[in-house]
Prior knowledge:
This protein is mainly alpha-helical and about 160 residues long. It has helices spanning about 5-20, 30-45, 55-80, 90-110, 115-125, 130-140, 140-160.
Amino acid sequence: MDIKTIIKFYRPVVSLKIKKEIGASNPDWEDLTNEVLTVVFESLKEKKFKEKSRLGTYIYGITKNVIRKYKYKKMIERKKSENIPLDLSTEDVGRLYEAKENLDLIAEAIKKLDFKYRQILYLYYYQALPRETIARILNLSLNQVDARINYAIRLLKKKLNL
Length: 162
């Protein structure tokens, strides 16, 4: 798909998602839309997009990340303006380090799952898609989606000795 087609088709979709998340009256929505499209074009140019997934799903993930980064930046700015201290105690740093280690272990366990279980977890937890939408995307029944999610979680718990 060429750049003009991507812009024509996905720009309105990305803009709508961003407006919903940060508010249509927020003047930053257009900059964020341009940032998403720039990241998409750079990653396509660098061949980071894997043909295994749909381009729309890939762009949706980039959009969510750009929005998340924007909200985090705004939160930090708000805390600075409210004079909320941003320094962390040694105990806080220890908890953050432990949490990161746990996330790394979970990520490794997820990587070891079969594709169909990684895919279902990605769609349900990371993309936050409703089970009905996942069923439609994967051409599965709602019961099959539920079963795969539950089984994937059981496999993860087993791999993590929980």
